[in-house]
Hints:
Elements: H1 5-10, E1 18-23, E2 26-30, E3 36-44, E4 47-56, H2 61-79, H3 83-90, H4 108-126, H5 134-144
Antiparallel strand pairs: 1-2, 2-3, 3-4
Amino acid sequence: MKLSDINIKRAKPSDSAYKIFDGGGLYLQVEPTGGKLWRYKYRFEGKERKVHFGKYPDVSLLEARRRHREAREQLAERLHLDTQWIERQLSHKTSERLGESYDRTQFLEDRRQMMQTWADYLYDLKAPKDAVPKDAAKKQTKKQK
């Protein structure tokens, strides 16, 4: 469920900090002191990372979503992935009245391509610096044939 200003204003502090998620890794952390902080949690190179967007109400819900969108786009550019493609992969909503359902086969080829891109990226990270890139090795074998 997406956050609303009403939900944010109703959030009261408790004995320990807790999170209210907005979706896509964006959440509002409610501190025991009453502070409300915007954060974005994501994974990069196998590690969990967080970005802080500021304190509510200094940073509004709309502004936090805008900053979240920009951060996701920057991350996608760094990984060379299309943001619309990522959104399609993460999309689970339908217009059915029976609730949200997900057709896992609908984007199967896109998922395969995304996983291959990710595998190539990880391979490039682990490969020794003097190793021949995979693309160059494929070209050499094609020329030899």
